[in-house]
Amino acid sequence: MSTETGIPRTLPTLRRRAEFLAVAATGKKWVTPGLILQIGKADNAPVHPRFGLTATKKIGNAVTRNRARRRLRALAQQMLRQHAVPRDYVLIARFDTATRDFETLRKDLTTALRKTGCWHD
RNA sequence: UCAGAUGGCCGGAUGACCGCUUUUUAAUCUUGAUUAAGGGGAGGAAAGUCCGGGCUCCAGGGGAAAUGGGUGCCGGAUAACGUCCGGCAAGGGUAACCUUAGGGACAGUGCCACAGAAAACAGACUACCUGCCCGCAAGGGUCGGAAAAGGUGAAAAGGUGCGGUAAGAGCGCACCGCGUCGGCGGCAACGGCGACGGCAUGGCAAACCCCACCCGGAGCAAAACCGAAUAGGAAUCACACAGUCCGGUUGUAAAACCGGGCGCGGCUUUCUCCGCCGGUGGUUCGGGUUGGUUGCACGAGGUGUCCGGUAACGGGCAUCCCAGAUGAAUGGUCAUCGCCUGCUUUGCAGGUACAGAACCCGGCUUAUAGGCCGUCUGACUUU
RNA sequence: UGGGGGAUCGUCUAACGGUAGGACAACAGAUUCUGACUCUGUUUAUCGUGGUUCGAGUCCACGUCCCCCAG
Question: In whole angstroms, what is the distance from residue A100 CA to residue A65 CA?
Answer without folding.
Answer: 14
